[in-house]
């Protein structure tokens, strides 16, 4: 009696086939529940014991739980349906849908795992904000490429001749490539900036007549906040083709300035001026004196050239030091009776 019932057919399937399919479905769900409640819990314990590990961490476990578990459910449903004889159209639809979902879940899981692992590694190794931002842009490009490959794989498995499709798009691709030369140039320049690192976020740079602090390095453009407040948007190609002066990386600033004294200054005073300037500059913190010389005879003054270094790249610090030097030189010259020169004219009249 039971055997006859099991052999009865409904919708082209025996009752036995339905029971087998249901058994596979239930057994599969039991395995998934065991995996989530036992195996994943043990992995979490290992993750807590090895909190510094990149391969075993909370983010990886969450990724498995959120993205890989749905794949297991999909496999169980797909396998259980394979024990049934379905309508050809329905069977084909299930195969197509299963392939698409399987590819999407796998690609999403792999991308999240690999990129997440790199981000964790770089967060420990790389402290530069610009590098992290640049890497996020690089990861976006990687995601686009991987998803394009996944789409081609899906199309190929669906029986669509990908090579024919690519060949048919060849002429159009060439036209698009020619039309987007500027975009591609900026993209390659982005990679050049990323790997060569001529500047980073928060660096103060000068490009031609433009100067300011780097705020953002994008795939196509870089944004700079100028001293007057407006934002400059410059293409990456223009940046890589320009001569960039990066003041943030300046360890010390070389300062050259000149001053003139009157021709009435006597020889002894002229000889004392370089010594006085050296003593003034050497007595100021974060400065390194280089030289001070009687440089030349000017039209209305005796010119001295002074060279010194300011330790660091802060412009305000340099200006404060230069101001202090100017004050002390003025004070010292007034004590010694040395006068600064200014444009004068002397008129000689001959009596005839």
Automatic annotation (TrEMBL):
State where the protein is found: Cell membrane
Q: Which residues form the Mechanosensitive ion channel transmembrane helices 2/3 domain?
A: 140-181
Asked if the keyword Cell membrane belongs to this entry, the reply reads yes
TM spans (from-to): 20-39, 71-90, 96-122, 134-155, 167-195
Q: Which GO terms describe its cellular component?
A: plasma membrane
Q: Which residues form the Mechanosensitive ion channel MscS domain?
A: 183-249
Family listed: Belongs to the MscS (TC 1.A.23) family.
**Protein name stated in the entry:** Mechanosensitive ion channel protein MscS
- Write down the species: candidate division WOR-3 bacterium
